[in-house]
Specification:
single chain, alpha+beta, Rossmann fold, Dna Ligase, domain 1, D-amino Acid Aminotransferase, Chain A, domain 1, 9-stranded antiparallel sheet, 4-stranded parallel sheet, 11 helices, binds adenosine monophosphate
Length: 358
């Protein structure tokens, strides 16, 4: 374990979106500076961080300069090219570690890892071409979902197969990318656990949240989730199991399907997670501070939930409602500083404190 980072130290963050922005704000509260590495122009995190490097992930000189200027490196998205990691890891500690990143970058390695831990996942089969898909559908049956193994998010890179007539359209939608067929899970609702693990192996999980997706994008997270006491404990144990197995440092988001036969793991994200934004107004220590504490080698904080919260994402044009939302007394507004409200783009979110019984 490294010495705890002293306030005044610099944390490097790969990725400059809203997650990097909110990590930077949390880091600043603890007295740290943040340096953002982001290929795109005008990253939302750049408005609040100490420094920004604008360069691509294959710019070795830029990566080396970035690493030399920081004390520790973390990231806000999981699709960092492993070549960039090779350069960075040689110079500074990177948290969460490479295993977490590599396993979660490919749906196949992710599912194999989860099953290796004895956790339940949807049934799956590897699909590289039409013949594979026909065979996979014969075994797994319909309904099923074909997903690209890499780079899918917010329901992108997915095609639903309701009957054999959908097979050709689904394989065409993959555009030749390696894919996985997943059996359709008959779930009652979806929940996620945001967990954290410190450098000395301490684990703390936030109360599971219940998630509602619209058009494949997270729309609402509500806490407490509808779970029995045993289910709630199971959800937390699943997250802790994954964290320990990966010797993980930082915050993780674990998405679960709730079924009559128990909890089924959909996927995990090795980073702070949209479904954990409610913690900003529901806990003394939120997911962003918890992540910064972990990567800085500090003890984790107490993430107990002190009120009921509903988080609503402001997607695309819905951010125009901000004037009305601002009139609500108990709505905590979090905007990401993005100038263009394109359809499907996450512009901000609002955390509403819910009175017990309402
Ligand atoms: P993903 O990109 O894997 O998180 O999938 C996006 C959303 O699609 C999930 O949150 C679920 O609502 C739905 N979904 C994904 N996989 C399955 C599955 N195997 N069975 C049922 N619904 C699924």
């Amino acid at each position: 374990m490294n010495e705890p980072l002293a306030p005044g130290s610099t944390i490097g963050i790969l990725g400059g979106g809203q997650l990097g922005r909110m990590l930077s704000v949390a880091a600043a509260r603890l007295g740290f500076k943040c340096h953002i590495f982001e290929p795109g122009a005008e990253p939302p995190a750049g408005q609040v961080a100490d420094r920004v490097t604008t360069a691509s992930y294959d710019d070795i000189a830029a990566l080396k300069g970035f690493a030399a200027s920081v004390d520790v490196i973390t990231y806000e998205f999981e699709n960092i090219p492993t070549g960039a990691l090779d350069v960075l890891e040689a110079l500074r500690p990177v948290y969460p570690n490479r295993d977490a990143l590599q396993i979660s970058q490919d749906r196949l390695s992710e599912k194999e890892f989860l099953q290796g831990l004895g956790l339940k996942t949807a049934p799956f089969a590897v699909v590289d071409n039409l013949a594979d898909l026909e065979q996979a559908v014969a075994i797994i049956n319909t309904p099923a979902i074909l997903k690209t193994r890499r780079l899918g998010y917010d329901g992108k890179g997915q095609a639903r197969i309701n009957n054999s007539g959908d097979i050709e359209t689904a394989i065409t939608a993959m555009a030749g990318a390696p894919a996985l067929l997943e059996g359709f899970v008959d779930f009652s609702h979806e929940v996620s656990v945001i967990g954290a693990r410190s450098q000395d192996g301490q684990v703390a999980c936030f109360d599971p949240g219940e998630n509602i997706h619209v058009d494949g994008i997270l729309h609402t997270t509500r806490v407490p989730a509808r779970l029995s006491g045993a289910q709630r404990t199971n959800a937390v144990l699943i997250a802790a199991r994954i964290l320990n197995a990966l010797d993980y440092v930082g915050v993780i988001g674990v998405e679960l399907f709730v079924t009559g036969g128990g909890l089924i793991v959909n996927e995990f994200a090795p980073r702070v997670h949209n479904s954990g934004h409610w913690t900003q107004n529901g806990c003394a220590i939120d997911q962003f501070e918890q992540h910064i504490r972990a990567v800085a080698g500090w003890p984790l904080g107490d993430g107990s939930r002190h009120c009921d919260v509903e988080m609503e994402n402001l997607i695309g044009d819905s951010v125009r409602q901000i004037g009305e939302i601002a009139k609500e007394g108990r709505a905590a507004i979090h905007l990401y500083g993005k100038s263009q409200a394109r359809p499907g783009r996450k512009m901000g979110h609002v955390n509403r404190i819910i009175e017990p019984g309402s």
